[in-house]
From TrEMBL:
Keywords: Membrane, Transmembrane, Transmembrane helix. This is DUF2834 domain-containing protein. It comes from Pseudomonas hormoni. The chain crosses the membrane at residues 44-62, 74-95. It holds the Pfam family DUF2834.
Length: 111
């Protein structure tokens, strides 16, 4: 994906909204998570979200390895995914897109 506009827009909008919500929150992130898991209906949504986050983590790992990057290079994205779910994969897509844009320029300079 050579374009970073969509993931960057989503990342900035969601991260901004997340910061706004966290600044106004009356409980900690951990307390909020516990309260979500205490009811079956909200627990189902959280479990579904983290299943999707796990799939995104597997994809990020495999994508990084196919691109010749070390497994350790994905750890920051996985940690962000574990805490903020969407932020990790969105940031990964932005960074990957920027790296893809940079490659043709580097190849031309080397020639």
């Amino acid at each position: 994906m050579k374009s970073v506009a969509l993931p960057l827009t989503a990342l900035l909008a969601f991260a901004g909204y997340t910061v706004s919500v966290m600044l106004q929150a009356e409980q900690s992130l951990i307390e909020f998570g516990i309260s979500l898991m205490s009811r079956p209906d909200t627990a189902q949504v959280v479990i579904d979200l983290y299943l999707l986050a796990t799939l995104a983590g597997v994809w990020m790992y495999r994508d990084a390895r196919q691109r010749g990057r070390s497994a350790f290079s994905v750890i920051p994205y996985l940690l962000l995914t574990a805490v903020f779910v969407s932020v990790g994969p969105l940031l990964y897509l932005v960074v990957r897109g920027l790296q893809d844009r940079k490659k043709p320029v580097d190849a031309e300079q080397a020639a």
